[in-house]
Amino acid sequence: MTATTPVLTDNKTLDEVVNCLTENLPIQTQGKCEQRNIFEILIRAATQRDSIENTTKVLKNVPTSNDIRYHLEKYSDLISLEDALNKALQSRLPTGIRQGQQKIAIDFNLIPYYGEPSPLEAPYIYRSQAKNGTCSFYAYATVYVIKKHKRVTLAIKAVQQQNTLVAIITYLLAIIEPLNLKIERLYLDREFFCVPVIRWLQALDIPFEMPAIIRGKNGGTKQLIRDRRSYKTSYTLNSDKYGSVTFNVWIVCTYKNGKRREHGREFFVYAVYKVKLTLSLIHDDYRLRFGIESSYRMKNQCRIKTTIKNPTIRLLFVALAFLIINVWIYLVWHFISRLKRSTRQVFSDLFTLKQMLEFLRQAVDRSYGVACEVYLPSG
Questions:
Q1: Cα(18)–Cα(37) distance, rounded to whole angstroms?
Q2: Distance between CA atoms of 186 and 104, rounded to whole angstroms?
Q3: What secondary structure does DSSP assign to 195-251, as a single string?
Q4: CA-CA distances (angstroms) from residue 171 to 175, 183, 249?
Q5: CA 175, CA 172: separation in Å to the nearest integer?
Q6: Tell me, what's the pLDDT at 3?
Q7: Rounded to the nearest 5°, which phi and psi values hold at 179?
Q8: Where do the Transposase IS4-like domain residues begin and end (predicted)?
Q9: The pLDDT value given to residue 263
Q10: 10-residue mean pLDDT series, the chain (379 residues)
């Protein structure tokens, strides 16, 4: 490509997302409501963090919101949809993802839920620490690969009340097994700090690191925080229900130095298994996983606004946000880059996620036209 020839256009960007959905999530349609129409309306709603109802009002010559919902409800089996969504997520991966050992992270994405759940919703309402005025959430477990400061979602799971943490980890690792990734180490958040998870990961011989939950006044993990230095030791975590497990803990002592206008010492305690790092590097290494939170913020830039109670359709809307981000990373890697001396030089600043969302919006708007008039009903 020359400087006067575009490597990527808004139509090509839209086609890439639509094709990804069409290949993996086919939906039977009838009448004037075609599959591509549905996907383009979903994409347009996602780019604006808008509802399906408002999107169908903004665009001209599109199916009604009731027509869209009617067809979306054909995704009636959550397990089948979840499998199809994970295939879609894995269908657009940068080539470098499968090369060498990878850093993998598993995390929860909690979306606040308010009110009394219906029988359809109840199995999918997850209880956790209070946030945004509620202890109830729709919960989605996701597994990522962290590569060159990019975080690519490999799989997603809608968490049910009956799912144990061990079952969630096992499911996600099984989903990505066909990719033949070599796990250098696994990052987990403190939600997974419990006897069954630590024991299970040790049995699988997977290197991992996760922050310990600080408990107790004088005993428990609170006793590990002492002195003014960083150090390593072992710790036995006990559970009345699951017994006990012994593992290595690394305690890191840092100084706030005015961060958040605070001063003094700050301690971080990590449960560690077969991680090939020095004590001085463990804290900065785990902060890589904090970058996943930025993936969540990006996801919230392109998540469809909805009050739909159907857990299956809600899963589709959440997964679509992660899919759009995956396609963005894929396009940057394959089109906004060039090979230079056997390495790939990526110009990610030339095509940000915000610009991709604008590309998608304007391509859909140009295709259908945007309503610019309002009429009163007759009579």
A1: 10
A2: 5
A3: HHHHHHHHHHT--EEEEPP---SSSGGGGG--TTS-EEEEEEEEETTTEEEEEEEEE
A4: 6, 16, 26
A5: 5
A6: 63
A7: -75, -10
A8: 100-306
A9: 66
A10: 78 97 92 90 97 95 93 94 97 82 89 90 90 90 84 93 95 93 90 94 95 80 80 91 94 75 78 92 81 69 92 96 95 84 78 95 96 85
**What single string gives the DSSP state of each residue in 35-78?**
HHHHHHHHHHHHHTT--HHHHHHHBSS---HHHHHHHHTT---H
pTM of the prediction?
0.90
> What secondary structure does DSSP assign to 2-38, as a single string?
-TTS-S--HHHHHHHHHHHHHHHS-----TT--HHHH
Q: Which residues contact 362 (CB under 8 A, 6 or more apart)?
A: 10
Domain ranges of the chain: 10-76+317-368
The strand pair at 182-188 and 101-112 is best described as: parallel
Do you know the residue count of the chain?
Answer: 379
